[in-house]
Amino acid sequence: MNLPLLNQFLLAASLAIGIINALWIWLSRPARDLSARIAKVAQDAKGEVDALASEMNGRGDRHRENLKEHDRRIQRLEDQVPHLPTREDLHEIGKALTAVQTQMAGITGTVTRIDDFLRNRP
Questions:
Q1: What residue ranges do the domains of the chain occupy?
Q2: How far apart are CA 11 and CA 14, in angstroms?
Q3: Tell me: the pLDDT tens digits for 43-98?
């Protein structure tokens, strides 16, 4: 084998490897810069995301408490409704009051007559 030919071949191969390496570094630099920027933005956004998540969890907790209180209020109303008088019950009470009023009118007339008799007695 010829030593100068081998030397030229190795020089050409190392030159090609150097050029390929330089091109690789030159072409991959934007990707590295972009990766660094993405990592920085992701780190900055993580704090914001955590703050927003904390705020949303707080809102969710308050909403759950409001729903529980609302449910309690509805339950209290549902517990009381069966004990309330119905329309028919109120109608019966109205009829009973009308009967009492009629009886009181009769008694009032009788009491008035008795009073007149006692006052006009000689």
A1: 87-122
A2: 5
A3: 888 888 888 888 899 999 999 999 999 999 999 988 888 888 889 999 999 999 99
- CA-CA-CA-CA dihedral for 16, 17, 23, 24, to nearest 10: 150
User: What are the structure tokens assigned to 82, written together?
Assistant: 């069966």
- Can you give the three-state secondary structure of the chain, one letter per residue? CCHHHHHHHHHHHHHHHHHHHHHHHHHHHHHHHHHHHHHHHHHHHHHHHHHHHHHHHHHHHHHHHHHHHHHHHHHHHHHHHHHCCCHHHHHHHHHHHHHHHHHHHHHHHHHHHHHHHHHCCC
Amino acid at 71: D
Q: Which residues, 6+ apart, have CB-to-CB distance to 93 below 8 Å?
A: 85
Write down the pTM of the prediction: 0.40
